[in-house]
Write a structure and sequence with these properties.
By secondary structure, the chain is mainly α. The chain has 10 helices and no strands.
């Protein structure tokens, strides 16, 4: 099978079939192709950068988790636009900012109604939090200083009076444990869920 670089992708149907079969390279190519334009669309609705990021995470994580259903979609760009708009509206409702912007929005009526929404970004975040809470105290503290407070491994080492190498190894081991716990996810999704500063 030819490599996909995100720029010269062949027929879109082939790309979709490869994603449905679990091809992470194809998923990354699709993410690179559509995340920017879908992000612009979401931002027109949400008018908030943090909200836009949350919605885009939700859209692409759900797409991967339910990738087996992708071959049923006739026209992927229209489907992605619909899902992005739906997720944006759901975000507004959940965050109690349902206002006159909603009245001006018209959702596209594509034939493809849905991909199951049984699990998404928020659920995966909660799964990570639960897993972290059950870790040994030092490993949990190191991870939270890195992930929550944004400290580098060097800064954590100085703060906790530990060696730089020990902190780096602990972070690497923690990320591996979390990835194993979450199950198979493309790297592009893991980088969204688990951004880490070394």
């Amino acid at each position: 099978m030819p490599e996909i670089d995100g720029d010269g992708i062949g027929r879109e149907k082939e790309l979709v079939l490869r994603i449905a079969a679990g091809d992470e390279q194809a998923f990354t190519a699709l993410f690179r192709r559509y995340s920017f334009s879908m992000g612009i669309l979401a931002n027109k609705v949400l008018q908030d950068e943090a909200a836009r990021q949350d919605v885009m995470q939700e859209v692409f994580i759900k797409l991967w988790l339910h990738r087996e259903e992708l071959p049923n979609i006739q026209y992927l760009p229209a489907w992605l636009k619909k899902v992005t708009l739906n997720e944006s509206l759901m975000y507004l409702r959940k965050n109690a900012v349902y206002d006159k912007r909603l009245a001006d929005l018209v959702l596209p009526h594509a034939e493809e109604e849905n991909i199951s929404q049984t699990i998404g970004f928020k659920e995966l975040q909660q799964k990570i939090r639960d897993f972290i809470s059950n870790m040994p105290e030092q490993r949990r503290v190191i991870y939270e200083l890195n992930r929550v407070e944004g400290l580098s491994a060097k800064e954590i080492a100085e703060k906790l009076n530990l060696s730089h190498g020990h902190v780096r190894n602990t972070l690497s081991a923690t990320l591996k444990s979390i990835r194993d716990h979450l199950g198979p996810l493309p790297y592009v999704l893991l980088s969204i869920l688990l951004p880490t500063k070394f």
